[in-house]
Amino acid sequence: MELDAARCYQAILSRDRRFDGKFFTGVVTTGIYCRPVCPVVPPKFKNMRFYACAAAAEAAGFRPCKRCRPETAPGTPAWVGTSAVVSRALRLIAEGALDEGSVDALAGRLGVGERQLRRLFAQHLGASPVDVARARRVHFARALIDDTTLPITTVALSAGFASIRQFNHAIRATFGQSPTALRRRHARRERADQGAGIVVKLPYRPPLAWAAMLRFLALRAIPGVEVVDQHTYRRTIEINGAPGLIEVQSDTDSESSSRPKGPHHAAHLLMRVELPRCESLIDVVERVRRIFDLGADPQRIAEHLSLSPQLRPTLDALPGLRVPGAWDAFELAVRAILGQQVTVQGATTLAGRLVRAFGIPVENRSDGLTHVFPRAEKLADADLAPIGLPRVRAATIRALAAAVASGALALDASQGLDDVAARLCAIPGMGPWTAHYIAMRALGEPDAFPASDLGLRRALGNGAGPLSEPELSRLAETWRPWRAYAAMYLWVGESEISHALEEAS
Q1: What is the pTM of this model?
Q2: How many CA atoms are closer than 13 Å to the CA of 181, on its beta-carbon side?
Q3: Which terminus of the chain is less hemmed in, N or C, by CB atoms within 10 Å?
Q4: Among residues 8, 20, 34, 447, which one is catalytic?
Q5: Which of 235, 234, 271 is nearest to 250 (CA)?
Q6: Is 453 in the active site?
Q7: How does DSSP classify residue 190?
Q8: Where in 316-425 does DSSP place strands (E)?
Q9: Which ranges in 101-189 belong to alpha helices (H)?
């Protein structure tokens, strides 16, 4: 990744928060790397080195600054959009592709050679895939050490380390202290109230249209699996065969307080998770971050989309809207098929019936969370007629489930948008609308765009009837590579503006 050193240095001198997390600075005289907003006196320009990501700085031998805590910087890596292969690889690494797999296997999933993948990472990140995966585990472990009271051994397992020795070595190499020493150093720091379960902070880059996202998710919540109110998102989960529960809410104190904040006090959501085992906690956190699209850069997206006169009013009225994702891609894909040719409420009703008939019951709950969504294997041969589903759509769900269960269809980031859309459309009963809807919400494709959607066409019709699909497609070309976000603003914008006016009155 070629960084403009002079521009980076100016951002450091001004401590411009727009650049926080988008690059990191290593200081050769101290061996420390920092965020652009670090409160220390900036060193001389000749002593500074600039890196696209924290992993690259650590691979170059720098340790994190104890003042600005660069490992806690909000997401939005500077390389997003520079290489489709690198972006997809990073999403797979975030899903744990290198926790047990090899770089060669990762390259194979992406359809490139191992040497080419390493070259692309060196070019765009200045770090290897293994460096990125290691930094992911180490930084997550540090957050658990600081913010929870979990035993150190549990922290190691939760962060995906294969052994305590490996964990201790990685923490010492990165932070210069043992895990227990770090825990003692921050023993007096206020930690989130654990209550029942583990509480983890999920940082993001503000603004975040939290209330609007909850209303969007509430309309589409699957009965028995999800419960959404005006403050909180809750749902059942299953990971490695074990059922669990997550609860996510905004930390309003971190957003609304007028007190000055240090660089490590980033805006964040609070997630409480209940699991019988903690080994996969790092994967739970990543999947929840995808539900709320916390890796997005709302300012960068808004700067591009605000060039469109059709989108500018909604962007101004509703800053920080994200593309809500999904806990499980298969679940979202089934929900999308259920929504074909019916209202949102109708699809929700069908989803509730499907869960009651085929979902995995959750014992001893009285809060509306009664089932875990059925696995693909369960639906591959299921008789869906009793839930009131038309025969063609039932066949589509079975075909999708069979393809996922057999491994013939991978609902992950290993393929580009065009490839995954083509594979989805090859399933009988699956068209471009469904494929792009799944791509934007389940697979995190920022440029997915269901151009045939009647709601999108009506939103741009200006009272003269909906635009035609070709007209909408031509107009949407100017929104690339953020068409999925444009779709969200068109879907949500009008109702949210009306909601804001009602609350104001």
Answers
A1: 0.90
A2: 7
A3: C
A4: 34
A5: 271
A6: yes
A7: -
A8: 360-361, 371-372
A9: 103-110, 114-124, 129-147, 152-158, 164-175, 179-185
